[in-house]
Amino acid sequence: xxxxxxxxxxxxxxxxxxxxxxxxxxxxxxxxxxxxxxxxxxxxxxxxxxxxxxxxxxxxxxxxxxxxxxxxxxxxxxxxxxxxxxxxxxxxxxxxxxxxxxxxxxxxxxxxxxxxxxxxxxxxxxxxxxxxxxxxxxxxxxxxxxxxxxxxxxxxxxxxxxxxxxxxxxxxxxxxxxxxxxxxxxxxxxxxxxxxxxxxxxxxxxxxxxxxxxxxxxxxxxxxxxxxxxxxxxxxxxxxxxxxxxxxxxxxxxxxxxxxxxxxxxxxxxxxxxxxxxxxxxxxxxxxxxxxxxxxxxxxxxxxxxxxxxxxxxxxxxxxxxxxxxxxxxxxxxxxxxxxxx
Amino acid sequence: xxxxxxxxxxxxxxxxxxxxxxxxxxxxxxxxxxxxxxxxxxxxxxxxxxxxxxxxxxxxxxxxxxxxxxxxxxxxxxxxxxxxxxxxxxxxxxxxxxxxxxxxxxxxxxxxxxxxxxxxxxxxxxxxxxxxxxxxxxxxxxxxxxxxxxxxxxxxxxxxxxxxxxxxxxxxxxxxxxxxxxxxxxxxxxxxxxxxxxxxxxxxxxxxxxxxxxxxxxxxxxxxxxxxxxxxxxxxxxxxxxxxxxxxxxxxxxxxxxxxxxxxxxxxxxxxxxxxxxxxxxxxxxxxxxxxxxxxxxxxxxxxxxxxxxxxxxxxxxxxxxxxxxxxxxxxxxxxxxxxxx
Lengths: 342, 342
Known about the structure:
Protein name (chains A, B): HTH-type transcriptional repressor CytR
Largest sheet of chain A: 6 strands, parallel
Keywords (chains A, B): DNA-binding, Repressor, Transcription, Transcription regulation
Strand order of the largest sheet of chain A: 2-1-3-4-5-11
GO molecular function, one term (chains A, B): DNA-binding transcription factor activity
Oligomer: homodimer
Domain HTH lacI-type (chains A, B): 6-60
Radius of gyration of chain A: 25 Å
CATH class of the largest domain in chain A: Alpha Beta
Organism (chains A, B): Roseibium album
Helix content of chain A: 25-40%
CATH architecture of the largest domain in chain A: 3-Layer(aba) Sandwich
């Protein structure tokens, strides 16, 4: 009779060999003596180990590597999250491999294949924009329970995720500007359809409403988290007749692009216009002026995502229920020199 | 008789099956009918295919992935090199996996094991500080001919490499400052024992000598390419009695740290002191003031390293000789607003 949840150690016990020998029989069978090999194969058949692709997912950390999908390695925001992931997985002798989802080859079918070939044991995805088609392929192959989202997530799924308290962060940003006396507050958003964009804009709108601040459509400016979109937002602001006195940017990179162009066009930060970012990347403390921002605890995002993944891929674990509730990491207001009294 | 340079297609021909079947026999033998499996194993024995670890290296791009080792993903310098690598390898249906050498797990023995398990086909190393012990392990396992260095390299080896013209870049930087009337020029170096540190300092010293500029020991300040080391260099410069009027920094990140602290301490850039960097990362155009720097063609560094690796791992290739000469990529002076007349 075929057992459920058969693991490599069950095969080893059945065959009377070590788990390493079972592993060799599967990966380098030609290096084993024929009798040993046939003995292991007989045990595989008897236990039903890995008789189909779905059963493969029952094997735990065979590859010794986890893949992290990053939406854009050009954004220095991700480095400390990766360090947190490495720190946690390093304790489990698991390597961290990284792929940029902007690299078209690393996405789509080839990535699923790579996963199916068991060259990775699990995946931490920092990109909420992973195509539904890819997710479906992971589900079809029984791999969806080996994926954890961090920072970003996919709406309307119950895949486990770790994220910052984005709504609270946006509220803190608006309240800080309000307390400095600002009433005309603009917001440069992230890219349309990004989950972070929605959460930060929502927090901004909630707090603006609560404080009964004036609202103008043109004060919500579309960006995409990039330096260049900060530059474009600055040009828009400079053209406005009813100019805001403060700008909340959806990322630090946007804030740099904005401040650079405002300064080049003769507006002083923070004397003429206050600017606050979101992320607190390392450079924020080294910009001129240093950037007031909302700090995401990037190391904690990384370590907690790694812990969650280790739990998911551990077949002993029974903690299925609570994984569906997102893990929320606190954010913090960091006041520096880019914001001042209105 | 055992053939040399046996490839999977030779085994397939011998067994009268497809290469996919040979591959399955090696990776998921339990999924094949026993007769097919034994047929393939007989062909493996007959051809001598992969009878030892060294023979494994004769297989070409089986994993469909190349590993890129990056010394510090927190430095945004690397992103465009990675994009160049991806662009080139994408044409060959090869995925790019990235590991940070600061992640201790990804280095040393586990990395060699990962390579030996053929989960990667080759490696592009952006870290010249790879321990000799690791290199020796790669050599011992016949893998040294599947490694290409880019940006950085290892002294006294003939491993293939692609690098910027660092000496020329440093000379351009000093000459630019000289032409603006500067005579007292300081240099913030990279970390001790780094090949880029040596090359850029050498270029700086060559040009300073050629132009007969004054030299003071204290004007050579040790840094480590980081923002923080730029901050420390600024503090040193502020304390000097004989202060330089211009500073050539070994990286853009150092220049940002330097400018941020000089400004905070009341010195104006470029009015009181000119600053020039090295790299031309994206942010350099968005700093206040925008940074004059030496542009490395990061995309070309990536594409050329990938081309060189593809050539190395192609068993058909006979271009062994010229790989030992480093490929040198031109650099360019980009004049912005952080340098001015002395």
